Amino acid sequence: MSEAVAERNAGVVEGPIASPRELMPYAIFAGVVLMMLVYFVGAEEGALSLIGGSSVHELVHDARHLLGFPCH
Amino acid sequence: MVRSLLIRGMLVGLLAGVLAFAFAYAFGEPQVQHAIDFEDLMAAKAGAAHEHALISRGTQRTVGLLIGTVAMGVALGGMFALVFAYAYGRVGSFGVRATSALLALAAYVTITLVPFTKYPASPPSVGNADTIDRRTLLFFAMIAITVLAAIAAGRVRREYAERLGPWNAAIAAGAVFVLVVAAAQLILPAVHETPAGFPADVLYRFRLASLGISATLWLTIGLAFGATAERLVAAQPGRARARRAGAAA
Ligand SMILES: [Zn+2]
């Protein structure tokens, strides 16, 4: 937690727990990695196909339909 | 702090994925099987050769389903933790568990429920393979519009809280949300790809199961993340100092 945020909230019990500067690297890297996970469950072998063949698509196919992603 | 929250979010997501798997296996899989049986029947009537799957149905409905729901749970749990890290203390003055529960409810409504009213989940054989690119794009567009509409509504509520009073500001925010979503639903093209003769009961039960699976995911994330994050936030050194400063003042 940055000092700036701590100072601003001194004396206040509820206040931000993370400054945007602290959040940014996580939002970028984790955001990209986690979006890739969503992609492999929900959209591989559709609009895009990153891994050749359709084995990833077939393995998680039921989850894709049941989680509401468009499919065949 | 952010790192610990992210890890907890992903672990909570893992738990949510396992519970969602149980729900999906019990309520969703029977409907998926009915839909595949219908598909096979239609293919047989048309005289098409039986399509051989790379991965057996037995694997798809057990291990495959589990991998899918857990991957989704971890991804949603991780992103949820990052949104929580930003929102806590900035959006409203709720405690840790209430913020987590309300954020999860908002996520369910804006990511699942409202987009579902335009582009609902569909079982195998409902949906044309040739239009999948377009349908994927429309699906994510509808989610993005709904989430942005909710964020805009939240801003309207805070912006006008003083001028209109909290009650009327909330009504104005709700009106903004409904208007944006309704406009998007009217403008975006409809998808009508249910094949003739597809059993309506199967479609209904599949969609109900799908809503239940997402509800299981978000309910678990919202409640379990709140419980685990509360201890973390309470133990934060800066927060303890802030509390001491408050007590001294
Ligand atoms: Zn499919």
TrEMBL record, chain A:
Tree of life domain: Bacteria
Keyword annotations of the record: Membrane, Transmembrane, Transmembrane helix
Family matches, as Pfam families: CbtB
InterPro entries named among the record's database cross-references: CbtB_put
Chain segments annotated as transmembrane: 23-42
Protein name: CbtB-domain containing protein
Annotated source species: Paraconexibacter antarcticus
Organism lineage: Bacteria, Bacillati, Actinomycetota, Thermoleophilia, Solirubrobacterales
Automatic annotation (TrEMBL), chain B:
The protein, known as: CbtA family protein
Domain of life: Bacteria
Listed InterPro entries: CbtA_put
Entry keywords, A to Z: Membrane, Transmembrane, Transmembrane helix
Transmembrane segments: 63-88, 100-117, 137-156, 168-188, 208-234
